[in-house]
Amino acid sequence: MINPQYSDLRFERSIIKKDAARSEKGVVTSQHYVAAEAGAKVLASGGNAVDAAVTAAFVLQTVEPWMSGLAGCGYMMIMQPDGQTEVVEFTGRVPSHFDEDYYRPDPVMKTFIGHPASIENRNETGFSSAVIPGCIRGFYEALKKHGTIGFDKALQPAIDQARKGLVVDWHTTLTIAMAQSDLAADEGTNAIFLPNGHAPEPGQILPLTQLSKTLEILADEGPDAFYGGQIGERLIEDLKKGNSFITLDDLADYQAQIYPARRSDIQGKRVYVAGETSAGQRLLDSLKFFDDKHGAGPVGPEMFVILANGLWEAFSAHKKRLNPAEKTNKTSTTHINAVDAHGRMVAITFTLLNRFGARALSPKTGILLNNGMSWFDPTPGRANSLRPNAYAPSNMCPVAIADHSKSFAVLGAAGGNQIVPTLAQLSAFLLHAGLDAEEAMNIPRMSTGPTRDIAVNIDMPADIIAALAAIGTIKPSQQTVFPRPFASPGIVSRNSNLFIGMPDTTYPPAFAAVCD
Description:
Elements: E1 21-23, E2 26-30, H1 33-44, H2 49-63, E3 73-79, E4 85-90, E5 105-110, E6 116-118, H3 135-146, H4 151-164, E7 166-167, H5 170-178, H6 180-184, H7 187-193, E8 205-206, H8 209-221, H9 230-241, H10 248-253, E9 257-260, E10 262-266, E11 269-273, H11 280-293, H12 301-317, E12 334-340, E13 345-351, E14 361-362, E15 367-368, E16 399-403, E17 407-414, H13 419-431, H14 437-441, E18 446-448, E19 453-457, H15 462-469, E20 473-477, E21 488-495, E22 498-502, E23 511-514
Parallel strand pairs: 19-20
Antiparallel strand pairs: 1-22, 2-12, 2-23, 3-4, 3-13, 4-9, 5-6, 7-8, 10-11, 11-16, 12-13, 14-15, 16-17, 17-21, 18-19, 21-22
């Protein structure tokens, strides 16, 4: 719908659309088509949804390395065909020892997510901003417990892709150019992402030689090669040169956490989320508020008004653990969904935190580092203060939904504090309005958080925007590639024996691939 009052904001005139993937055999969605297709091939060869999702996650670092990689941190939801759901949590962890004075707060500067910056940005950029990453251990444990293929086989498509190098398209050029000044300051990122000293042009291929060697070692030796073995030793050498406090013992001591998912019964279905360090409880609180105040019904002004109130209520209840920033378009989070023919569903959300993470790359391993220290407040005595061995809290929030002892949907999103508002709306579209994944993903959304500012997609119907304007301050935005005013979600849902997958409609390489 075109709202004439926002015509001056329409600087992009194209129609944005993505096709849904439909299959009884399985679907994989990802923020990059190469990863989604790699996961779908695993399903076609007999693997299950866990195998497919992990394979897709490993491939992502070879096509969108600024989003995720071997230094990534996050969560994996595994829902069995009967609806039983488990969480594999592999969040980032602070080193066991560090110099508090080294990370003392700068009296003026803030990090990109709103915490005080350490002097010289030591908790936001460079090797000193990294936390112990968990995705390698997390993915291994998930495959060991629920997968059907080996860790080495899950890594093989990523190895093959890394050997080919990073193929540059216009989106890659844009993303690298936006971070060029920081990438130029680090030896490792400069060497890979800035050939001849500037952002590459579409059509170029950036070698990922050292990363491919690291992936090969992981496939041969398993995760212990990273958590204490030869990869870890090489990584620690680079980290020490960059003033990181992470030690080889810190890597060796890291463990992923596996536990039953939190749950809440809503509209006859069971909604599952991850634990305390995630934004899961905030999402459940938002949905419970909406369920109590609205219940089932069509999408319309009343739905959005009550959703906004529910989000404000939940943000208020959880404000002590929230990152201060209401929104940011600099995060590097990514999300994957997978379902197999049996109805087993998986959702993975993981991240380097900032786009390009620490904007520092380990030359000896080819690993782009996270900047997870930014998740913590360097000011002592606060709810989220930096402390030894702490696991990082975040806004990541993968969701699984079961329907009468049967898997129904998985979803998730990238986008910092925009994640919960987006997933609350999409969940309500599925649970309360009875929409499928394609219908839900094509409805224009709003975003709101700790304040009563409401970002609205200017394609929302005028009556919905008017209703929201009566309760908050409207900030209209067009849904664009850059900047990204809203989160980037993906969904897989079930319609009887047919599975429907939808990627983010506005993220250029996002895709839903079917198992043929």
